[in-house]
Automatic annotation (TrEMBL):
Species classification: Bacteria, Bacillati, Bacillota, Bacilli, Lactobacillales
UniProt-recorded name of the protein: DNA-binding helix-turn-helix protein
CDD domains: HTH_XRE (cd00093)
GO molecular function list: DNA binding
Transmembrane segments annotated in the record for this chain: 85-105, 117-136, 148-165, 177-203
Organism: Limosilactobacillus antri DSM 16041
Length: 212
């Protein structure tokens, strides 16, 4: 018997409507209807909730429904891939954050002393790592973070930006070149602050995904 038919029978056995089950699980009635008609499957968390609600083992719920088992295998593989990508992106962000801190404290003298090809390669690496700052931001789960993390991230960004401005900014003229240089430095400071914020506040997600 397929999963959809099973949960439909278990609900009928308890004399519950789809709306009653939806209320107990904290989802919409349409979601329950979609599960019972085989249009979609619950995630692992909701599958455990269904098992507890109907007092039946997960093995009994999943047995014989090979399509659903394959669906969960594919979902697990997809999540594992996303976790690997996030982990690598986070570690790359740590590297660029260290570079930005070094740049703010000691300048770019070391890179400027490299031969032309070395400066070119260094610029390419820094550019790719800088793009990764935005990539990591898009992969982070910010919406499900608590208020403390959200407020803390914003405050950290403000404080780090202020410190980097003090370290990195020098006076510049009001000429077009000076204004352009100021905007360029401002962009680097904002990027630097963002990368450092990600290192600090995304570490719990990094640790969770690395160990999952």
């Amino acid at each position: 018997m397929e999963f959809a038919e099973k949960i439909k029978q278990y609900r009928a056995h308890n004399n519950w409507t789809q709306q009653e089950v939806a209320t107990k699980l904290g989802v919409s009635r349409k979601t329950i209807s979609s599960w019972e008609n085989g249009r979609s499957y619950p995630d692992i968390f909701m599958l455990v909730q269904l098992s507890d609600l109907y007092q039946i083992s997960l093995d009994d719920l999943l047995r014989e429904d090979h399509e659903m088992i394959n669906n969960y295998k594919q979902e697990h593989a997809s999540l594992a891939k996303q976790d690997r990508i996030f982990t690598i992106s986070y570690l790359c962000n740590v590297v660029i954050s260290l570079y930005f801190l070094w740049r703010a404290l000691f300048g770019t003298g070391m890179i400027n002393q490299l031969p032309p090809l070395g400066r070119l390669l260094a610029g390419v690496v820094v550019g790719l790592l800088s793009v990764n700052v935005y990539f990591l931001l898009s992969k982070a789960d910010w919406k499900n973070q608590n208020r403390f993390t959200q407020v803390g991230s914003i405050l950290t960004f403000i404080v780090v930006t202020a410190l980097l401005i003090k370290l990195d900014f020098t006076s510049f003229s009001g000429t077009a070149y000076g204004i352009g240089a100021g905007f360029g430095r401002g962009f680097v400071v904002a990027l630097s602050a963002m990368s450092i914020v990600e290192v600090i506040w995304l570490y719990p997600q990094f640790r969770q995904r690395r160990n999952r």
